[in-house]
Amino acid sequence: MANADFIKQLSGYGLTTAKILYHIPDYPKLLQTFIWQDYDLAPKFPELLGFLDFWKRELDGPVHSVVVAHARLIRPAEIVNVNGVLTLH
Fold first, then answer.
1. Which residue among 25, 43, 56, 74 is least crowded, i.e. fewest CB within 10 A of its CB?
2. Does residue 84 fall inside a structural domain?
3. Are the C-beta atoms of residues 24 and 65 closer than 8 Å to each other?
4. Contact present, 24 and 60 (Cβ < 8 Å)
5. Which range of residues forms the domain containing residue 43?
6. pTM for this one?
7. What is the average pLDDT value for the chain, to the nearest integer?
8. Sign (positive/negative) of CA torsion 65, 49, 24, 71?
9. E strands of 1-89, at which residues?
10. What is the pLDDT of residue 60?
């Protein structure tokens, strides 16, 4: 049986990392960083948006900003056609 993350990658998901800056509830003028990482679909990012909805609904620290990085780990292979033969003796 294949790993669930591998199956997601074959379905077009890529590794998404979000750096979330948020205000500390007890000290609202201070910012703290939270790093979130999961497999998600770009450019709509449904998993990340679901997490941010959860954050807004359940956690006290309001989000200041979010920076997102995304990379597809499984891509079509790059094939280069080479015309020529090299013979070694």
1. 43
2. no
3. no
4. no
5. 4-71
6. 0.78
7. 90
8. negative
9. 14-24, 27-40, 63-71
10. 93
